[in-house]
Write a structure and sequence with these properties.
This protein is α+β, with helices and mostly antiparallel strands and 323 residues long. Helices cover 30% and strands 36% of the residues. It has six helices and 17 strands.
Amino acid sequence: MGLTRRELLRYAAAAGLGALLGYSLPRLNEIIYAVDKLANIRERRTITQTLKTNTTTTTYCPTNKTVTETGPQTNSTTTQPLQTLEEILFGNSDIQFIPLEVTDVEIDRNNAYLTLYNSLTNTQLQIALPSQYVLNGNINIGNLLSAVNNYNSTYKTNYKVYLVLGRANINQAILQNGIWYLPASQIYYNILISDREWKNVYNALQNLKSGNATVVMPTSDQASYANSLWGWSNSINSSTIILYQNGQQVNSVLNYIKLADSILGTPNNSNPSSQGTLHVDTITSIQELGVYENKYPVVGVNNYLGTYIVFIQAQGYQLFSNL
């Protein structure tokens, strides 16, 4: 069998060494075997050392946890910068406020600790506000959440409590032990209740902000027209008859009034908004249709954007002051 060039060179080198030392041909074969064995051992060591080399990557998560990944590469460590609260809340969007679902509330003498779910960025976070900024009289945001959960359980409904946070000054919040502490005196926010998803809440408030919608405050008192309720119009600053588009909208309004009465502990109160703690607001564009008994304007609902219960906080800056 013919020899390869590598084998021929090894044989020649061993033969030369054997001649120099006076070894016989069998002894030369032993030398060649030893050289081959040494070469194989070195090759195996090289492969083993390559496979044992790896890389470690550290990535920051919004939940303040560290994720470590290992792979067959060279050793290296990469640390991503911590996210600001603005990045956690708004992501890459340019929206100026965000409705956040309140899922849990704990209140002590100084602060209210809110667990929030952000559907925009699919994250959960905790924030803290001074307790007096989520309080009005003897009702606080914890009472709202508890009442809503009980109402949902009893009537099989799906109302949610939302904290609507404005973007302005949000990065003045301080992160301590996984909780974002908000300087409430500089933060703009509203607290409201809705059975709509956050996108619908955002759309209604955005239309209100841009002037494409207004607020009417209905009562449960039926007016003289079909699908109509007595109420108040913010845009014309007057008691008015609100003519809804259909009975489904009227039923929705009546259910919100029932829920507001349940929270306030005032059953069968036709106008819970008059208490000054909760407002029942319909956000809509309206059309003036005439005057009833030459005294009360009649307004028709055009673009119905939902009815909401708005908690009127005793302190702090309201993001939307016309709710």
